[in-house]
């Protein structure tokens, strides 16, 4: 079923309507978000408003809103408190696709830092709206160790990127970033990480629940940056709207270890943290 023509009743059953209709940036107060259980269709925006709140939050927004180089370190205690674009997920209940172990030129035949395990969805692409604009889900891929890091915290062993590309107009992206910890339990991430295909090949994967790839807590850290892998000319495209979840998700220890061991010891598919001057404004929602 195309998400574009999702009937209202079905959308309601998926928890996507009526809040899934495009909304004004930052108009969804945090207090409106359902607590626990079903995924809120709209991730909460900042709840403060009015001149007093503006004065209070101004001092923390000392960085730049220009697109910086990614990935960056995120300081949870120095965020810029202001409204953020409304983010609404229009994901279907489950999707099928291909799991690919990408083997990029010019290094072929063994995993390089620019290769990854990626899930490419077959059929109509799920989409999100970000600030009322439509972005379609291009792929879900993984980096090991993580690329983003929270200040004062260790690197997570794996980071998942759900890459959404702007559907119309100028090129642009929204990437949902989920840091993964190794756990005794399995999760939906194990469906993509547990038994990857050989380098340069693909295999079918069915019935992936995209929403289950996201952590339960919907707090996100937002900034404008770049892609973390270059195109053929060596350019790291920007702007990219980064949405990094504050809570980590999980995958089983076996899957995390197996994924990390695809690259030689001490190597991985990671771009190092980028130091930007001035640093980006990072907002929390
Ligand atoms: Zn990535």
From TrEMBL:
GO terms for molecular function: carbonate dehydratase activity; zinc ion binding. The keyword Coiled coil does not apply. It holds the Pfam family Carb_anhydrase. The keyword Zinc applies. Keywords: Lyase, Metal-binding, Signal, Zinc. It catalyses: hydrogencarbonate + H(+) = CO2 + H2O. Belongs to the alpha-carbonic anhydrase family. This is carbonic anhydrase. It comes from Planotetraspora thailandica. The lineage of its organism: Bacteria, Bacillati, Actinomycetota, Actinomycetes, Streptosporangiales.
């Amino acid at each position: 079923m195309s998400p574009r023509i999702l009937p209202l009743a079905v959308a309601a059953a998926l928890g996507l309507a009526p809040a899934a209709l495009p909304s004004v940036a930052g108009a969804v107060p945090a207090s409106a978000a359902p607590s626990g259980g079903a995924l809120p269709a709209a991730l909460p925006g900042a709840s403060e408003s009015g001149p007093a709140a503006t004065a209070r939050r101004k001092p923390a927004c000392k960085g730049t809103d220009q697109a910086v180089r990614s990935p960056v370190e995120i300081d949870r205690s120095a965020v810029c408190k202001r409204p953020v674009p409304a983010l609404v997920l229009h994901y279907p209940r489950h999707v099928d696709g291909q799991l690919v172990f990408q083997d990029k030129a010019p290094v072929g035949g063994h995993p390089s830092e620019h290769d990854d395990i990626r899930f490419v969805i077959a059929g109509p692409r799920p989409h999100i709206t970000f600030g009322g604009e439509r972005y379609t889900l291009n792929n879900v891929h993984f980096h090991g160790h993580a690329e983003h890091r929270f200040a004062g915290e260790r690197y997570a062993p794996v980071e998942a990127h759900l890459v959404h590309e702007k559907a119309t107009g100028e090129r642009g992206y929204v990437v949902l970033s989920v840091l993964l910890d190794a756990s005794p339990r399995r999760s939906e991430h194990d469906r993509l990480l547990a038994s990857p295909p050989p380098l340069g090949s693909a295999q079918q994967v069915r019935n992936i629940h995209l929403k289950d790839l996201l952590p339960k807590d919907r707090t996100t850290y937002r900034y404008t940056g770049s892609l973390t892998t270059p195109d053929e000319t060596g350019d790291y495209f920007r702007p990219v709207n980064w949405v990094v979840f504050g809570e980590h998700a999980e995958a089983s220890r076996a899957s995390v270890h197996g994924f990390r061991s695809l690259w030689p010891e001490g190597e991985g598919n990671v771009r190092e943290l980028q130091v930007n001057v001035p640093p980006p404004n990072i907002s929390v929602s």
